[in-house]
């Protein structure tokens, strides 16, 4: 009997729905497709400096309760209506969570919050959430972590992000090169900015890479390159915050030296807030001062915000506080609103 050498540590396998079938079950309406295409063009114009508004990507750290997210989205849209001459709101809709060691991996991987890993159900929920957000008329932003999940819902995303843990990954640079929306690359977790600039340069080129077709067939795809990739400053473990004027100017100069658009998005959370949600307000105040002083490279901000401030430990769904994060702590929406007004006022003054 020959020695077995394959799948020694694979204990189970489950069938995975194909992107084509999921899109047939949950189709994108023509009006929604037009809204998403328009949102992508608006974001590109803002980040290129052709639209004077400020891009504001705001919402929960991650989606664990679709009903709470949609409740947040409706309230956010109403709060932003009088501000849309100055800011362009995009809802943060993140389904995947990269873990340093272990932990909840997000709605797609574990939609029941119980380690059952019903990924087919998670993909259905994710696509339905994005369709509901599109129906509200809000653009959506999402991080791409798994390099195949995007085939199931990328048509509904107006802004994509590659996170700090994956910015150095060749696979994610290739993925970004083929995405149909503008993409932001975060600086590395240690604060290094040059790796994100390298990623932007790489993603602008054509690549060949293995993936899935919409029919679920393994294939090698060729991208044409993504000309709409941007730098996100999120601070780092070693460097500390990088939203201050010197760091912003240095990053803008580094982009220009590589022949790239000197356009920056500042993540007010993560390393820039020391993971203390209330400190996002200090970051916003500093950014507003820079805008007032004529810093034109600042074209976007990210805020982590939910209906209820703070965070809670993961528990059975019926035991959780409604509208409160189970991952990173967030600002409450009531505390987020004045920050949106402050940003809008700063943009109006600078304009």
TrEMBL record:
Q: Name one Pfam family in it.
A: DAHP_synth_1
- Pathway this chain belongs to: Metabolic intermediate biosynthesis; chorismate biosynthesis; chorismate from D-erythrose 4-phosphate and phosphoenolpyruvate: step 1/7
Q: Which GO terms describe its biological process?
A: amino acid biosynthetic process; aromatic amino acid family biosynthetic process; chorismate biosynthetic process
- Please report the stretch or stretches of sequence annotated as the DAHP synthetase I/KDSA domain: 45-337
What's its EC? 2.5.1.54
Quote the cellular component terms of the Gene Ontology held in the record.
cytoplasm
Catalytic activity as recorded in UniProt: D-erythrose 4-phosphate + phosphoenolpyruvate + H2O = 7-phospho-2-dehydro-3-deoxy-D-arabino-heptonate + phosphate
Give GO terms: molecular function aspect only.
3-deoxy-7-phosphoheptulonate synthase activity; identical protein binding
Q: Does the keyword Amino-acid biosynthesis apply?
A: yes
Q: Which InterPro entries match?
A: Aldolase_TIM, DAHP1/KDSA, DAHP_synth_1
* Keyword tags: Amino-acid biosynthesis, Aromatic amino acid biosynthesis, Transferase
Looking at its record, which EC class is this enzyme? transferase
ATP-binding listed as a keyword: no
What is this protein's function per UniProt? Stereospecific condensation of phosphoenolpyruvate (PEP) and D-erythrose-4-phosphate (E4P) giving rise to 3-deoxy-D-arabino-heptulosonate-7-phosphate (DAHP).
Regarding protein family, the annotation reads: Belongs to the class-I DAHP synthase family.
Task: Give the matching NCBIfam families.
Answer: aroFGH, PRK12755.1, PRK12756.1
Protein name stated in the entry: Phospho-2-dehydro-3-deoxyheptonate aldolase
Q: Which organism is it from?
A: Sediminihaliea albiluteola
């Amino acid at each position: 009997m020959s020695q077995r050498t394959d799948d020694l540590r694979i204990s189970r396998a489950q069938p995975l729905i194909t992107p084509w079938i999921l899109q047939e079950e949950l189709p994108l309406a023509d009006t929604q497709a037009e809204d998403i295409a328009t949102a992508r063009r608006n974001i590109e114009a803002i980040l290129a400096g052709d639209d004077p508004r400020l891009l504001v990507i705001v919402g929960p750290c991650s989606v664990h309760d679709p009903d709470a997210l949609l409740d947040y989205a409706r309230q956010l849209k109403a709060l932003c209506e009088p501000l849309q001459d100055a800011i362009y709101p995009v809802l943060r809709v993140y389904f995947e969570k990269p873990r340093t060691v272990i932990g909840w991996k997000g709605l797609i991987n574990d939609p029941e919050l119980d380690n059952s890993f019903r990924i087919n159900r998670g993909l259905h929920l994710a696509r339905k959430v994005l369709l509901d957000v599109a129906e509200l008329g809000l653009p959506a932003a999402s991080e791409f972590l798994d390099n195949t999940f995007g085939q199931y819902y990328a048509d509904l995303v107006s802004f994509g992000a590659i996170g700090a843990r994956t910015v150095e990954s060749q696979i994610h640079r290739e993925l970004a090169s083929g995405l149909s929306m503008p993409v932001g690359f975060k600086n590395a977790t240690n604060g290094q900015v040059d790796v994100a600039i390298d990623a932007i340069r790489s993603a602008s080129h054509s690549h060949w890479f293995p993936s899935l077709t919409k029919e679920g067939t393994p294939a090698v795809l060729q991208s044409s390159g993504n000309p709409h990739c941007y730098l996100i400053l999120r601070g780092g473990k070693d460097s500390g915050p990088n939203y201050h004027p010197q760091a912003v100017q240095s990053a803008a100069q580094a982009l220009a030296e590589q022949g790239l658009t000197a356009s920056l998005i500042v993540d007010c959370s993560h390393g820039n807030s020391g993971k203390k949600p209330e400190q996002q307000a200090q970051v916003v105040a500093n950014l507003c001062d820079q805008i007032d002083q004529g810093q034109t490279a600042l074209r976007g901000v990210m805020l982590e915000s939910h209906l209820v401030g703070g965070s809670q430990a993961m528990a059975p769904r019926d035991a959780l506080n409604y509208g409160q994060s189970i991952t990173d702590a967030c600002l409450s929406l009531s505390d987020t609103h004045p920050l949106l007004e402050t940003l809008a006022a700063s943009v109006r003054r600078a304009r």
